[in-house]
Amino acid sequence: MDWNFVIFAAVKVVAVFAVLMFMVAYIVLVERRLCAAMQDRVGPNRAGPFGLLQPAADAVKAFLKEDFTPAHVRKVYYFLAPAIVMMPAILNVAVIPFGSKIGGQAMVIADLNVGILYTFGIVSLGVYGIVLAGYAANSKYPFLGGIRSTAQMISYEIAMGLSVIPLLLMVGDLNLSQVIQHQQGTVAWLPNWMPLPNWLVFQNPFTFLAFCIFIVSAFAETNRTPFDLPEAEQELAGGYNVEYSSIKFALFFMGEYANMILASAMMVTLFFGGWTLPVFGLDKEATTLLAGLAHIGIFLAKVLGFLIAFIWIRWMLPRFRYDQLMNLGWRWFIPLALANIVATAVWLWMRP
Amino acid sequence: MIVKRPSLTCWERLYLPALWGGFKVTFRHFWTTVFRRRPVTMQYPEERWVVPEGYRGAPYLVRDQDGNTKCVSCQLCEFVCPPKAIKITPPGPDGAPADRPNAEKMPREFEINMLRCIFCGYCQEVCPEEAIFLMEDYSLTGLSRQEMVFNKEKLLGLGGTHAGIQKWKHKLEEAKEQEMFPVKP
User: If you write DSSP's letter for every residue of A173-199 in order, what string do you get?
Assistant: First the structure.
């Protein structure tokens, strides 16, 4: 047994988990402050300087609240659902390369050769948490939320999965580290004095279209506005999590944000070059400790950028109507993604 | 009513104009709130709402310019009070006299249960002595129900002085003048 590997893997697991949970806690605060600013309010600013201790206060509140289990729920699923919501995000972070190398250690927990397949496999489990919550609650609003989320998440998973296939065709590898290697340098189609990063989103129109489909599907997958129909407050009083209280409710909340972080990390890795940045040689694997840390910083900054986009769009757009949502998913994105695959394949075949 | 759904052009159906429009609006608000520091939020315990004139807050008893209790224990307010929040204990036949000349009596105890009070202002309306006023206090808090029953001392303390007509003082002067003879021209 390779103890070196075990120890480093354990350290990475703990570190990634800690950072993920920290980000989940603080992205909630960021969202509250940001949306407050957009609505001419102040937002939480009481707990600590600038409200920085608000997540801690929220956590204490969530744990101390009465954990009420209604009499009519289906107990096993009721207890299982919050855990299942949280699980996919945590499992998926394992294959995301969050940095290049620090001291010879690759900054990814599991460098799987089937990284993208694994990701999609686990992401599709995410729907179970919400569906189970809707079913277990055994009352009408959670049930409606569960039904909506089943249809929505399954529909958009198809579009999401199809949208990355052009990428795989171009990269020729399912390993996420290889996908990042493919995005080093600057784009070929611009002259040298215009250094646009060679990220997959900029490489050609096919990948750009793929990115557009992917980001919209990611919004639908994470149940964020404009596709937050499973938890539409105005219609369903909160949707699938109505019957939950205390830390179980908080787990749903954290699961949503963890999924958001995961979706952002996926988009950064697949389309925005992961930890690469084509300046100061930061697009090559790090040889020094400083460069290794800089790569992690770049990755986190990009993820944060996407998270802010997620949040901003939530407070910017109204919710789609259900038929519009289905229309967009099935009649626009899936054909478009399929056409994109064919076009990319043809283009790659024609290319000398 | 049937609202006709407008038919969208191809460009609009891409949702991009809506996206851009939404971004403009949210960014404008974000900018003014964060960089010009103009949120509408009032930081409540530090900043307080300025109460408009004629606001009906908590009813308190007032003293006149000379610091005397204006209330004469007529119990009209107790009678008119819709939620029966006011309870007056009159002095009785051998109670203490009023602390201003010519007024017959003053209450031995005057209690307003602020948990019952509905801030209707009937007591202020009915008071012949201008002794009770609805003031500006809108945030009444206490740790127990008992604490929310305000007694005469507390009500007078909170009410302060209210310069109004000094009815009994004038009556006294009139009475004194009537004693005089011949009557002043």
Answer: ---HHHHHHTT-SB-TTS-TTS--B--
